[in-house]
Structures are given as C-alpha cells and as structure tokens.
Amino acid sequence: MVFPTVSELSGRLFQIITDDFDRTFRGFLDGSDVTKTDKYLLAQTEVDHPIGNLLVVRDPGDSATVAAAVGPLCSDEFPSGVVCLGPAGQEVQELLTSRGFQLAENLPAMAANLTDVHLPDRIDGYTIQQVGAEAHELWVDTMAEGYELPRAFVERIGPAVVASIAADDEEYRYYIGFHNERAVATATIIIRDGIVGVYNISTIPDQRGQGVGGFVTGEPLRLAAAEGYRTAILQASQMGEPVYLRLGFKSYGEMPFFVRIPGS
C-alpha cells in the first residue's frame, strides 16, 4: 500500500478532503429518505437537527441545482442544513438567504502529517478501545450525547452499519473513550487510498475542557502512524478547530455550512 504525505498531496488536499466528506456521508446515509445524484446528496430524516436534514452540494457555484434541491428542506417542521463543498458563490448565498438559511460557520478542511502530529500525553483515568458491531448501542449512546445529535440519526452511522456499507478499498475503525469504565467520548477513522480520515469526534458535556477530544483523536492516529500511514484529514467545526490546530493539523480551505431553524 502507498502511504502519501501531505507534501505529495499538495495542491489537491482541499479536493481530497471534500471528496472524502462527500463519500462518507453518501456511504452512511441511504434509504427512502435520501436522494443521491452526481450533483448533490439530500437527506430528509426529519429529526430535530440540521445534520439530519442535509443538502451536500458538490458544485457550490451551481445555483440552479441548489434551487432545485433545497426545496424539501424549507419546511417549518424541522431544522435543516446545507454544506457546500467549496466557497459558495454570491448567487447561491443570496438564494439560501431568501429561503431562510443563514451561514452558521465555515468548516475548516484540515490535514496533518502523522509524523509531525503533536500527540497529547495519555490522561490519567482515561482509556480508549477500538470496538465493533457488538458495541454499537454504547457507541451510539455516547456519540448522540457527545455530539448532541438525535439518537435515531446516530444509529445510521454507528459500527453495526459497517458490514453493509464498507467498500473493499476502505476500512472503518470505531473507538470509545472511557473514564474509569464510563463511556465518555467517540472517534471513527476511515482509511481510503492510504489516507486516514477522522470522523465522529465527540465528548459528552461534563467531560469537555479536559483534553479528552485531543486524546480520542490522537490515540487512533498514533496507532495509524505506527502502521505506516502518514497523512490524516478531517473536516472540523469551528469549536473543534483549536483542538486540531494543537495536534498539528492545518486548514486547506473551508466548507460553508448554512442552517435553517424554524421560528428563528
């Protein structure tokens, strides 16, 4: 297997990160409430969170596609979101604003050389364990609390789904972080083309601010680096970005995230 470095991927990293994000959501989200075309992914799960009612647009300058696809998300029955896989053009921004969406944040697309990552020291009382389908319920419970997502949505991205979605050229690894045997954090890494994608980093509210997020991110990366992997990528929230900067990740672009909250 080839293990590319950040420098070898220079100039293509933003596209690689956004493509990985798109592929991941297309893998996790399937069923009668999901529409996938070569231009967008539309999920209409009707859960009470924008991530569950989501439009992911591959060409953020394609206002015609956005206009045609976003309609089902303009309901007053549930919150919804739009992620653009690149800077949104003025026309798209104005269109989304006219439909009641507001720019919530610009999500940094980040990457790091695993040989340069500043892996945090292990924290007393905290451990991390790789888990499989047998721990699906515990992982889902922890992720739902930590990421503050509806459990019905998290059920669709937990370890039990891997057997039905994983392609031959990708590997999913799920982790739970424990504090004195209590599940308090989650992480997932998805390996494709010799690159480690980081997803589902969450910490339950009463454990935040203690370095747990860095710990559950860093330990899977430590293991991946020991296997020879040299590049990690992720899409961060603005809240999580400082954690990843401290680990040694750098931003290579931003993905605008618009939300529509009924009654706001």
Structure description:
An 11-stranded mixed beta sheet has the order 1-2-3-4-11-5-10-9-8-7-6, with helices on both faces. The chain has 2 domains: 103 residues, no CATH class; 141 residues, Aminopeptidase. The protein has 8 helices and 11 strands. It is globular. The N and C termini lie far apart (50 Å). Strand 1 and strand 2 form a beta hairpin. Helices cover 28% and strands 31% of the residues. The mean pLDDT is 96. The chain has 264 residues and is α+β, with helices and mostly antiparallel strands.
Average predicted local confidence, pLDDT: 96
Estimated helix fraction:
25-40%
Radius of gyration: 18 Å
The number of domains is 2
Query: Could you give the distance between the termini?
Result: 50 Å
Number of helices: 8
Number of strands: 11
Give the overall silhouette. Answer: globular
- Biggest sheet: strands, sense, closure? 11 strands, mixed
Q: Decide which structural class fits the backbone.
A: alpha+beta
- The CATH superfamily name of the largest domain is Gcn5-related N-acetyltransferase (GNAT)
Low-confidence stretches: none
Query: What's the SSE pattern?
Result: HEEEHEHEEHHHEEEHEHE
CATH fold-level name of the largest domain: Aminopeptidase
The fraction of residues assigned to DSSP E strands is 25-35%
Strand order of the largest sheet: 1-2-3-4-11-5-10-9-8-7-6
CATH class of the largest domain: Alpha Beta
Please name the CATH architecture of the largest domain: 3-Layer(aba) Sandwich
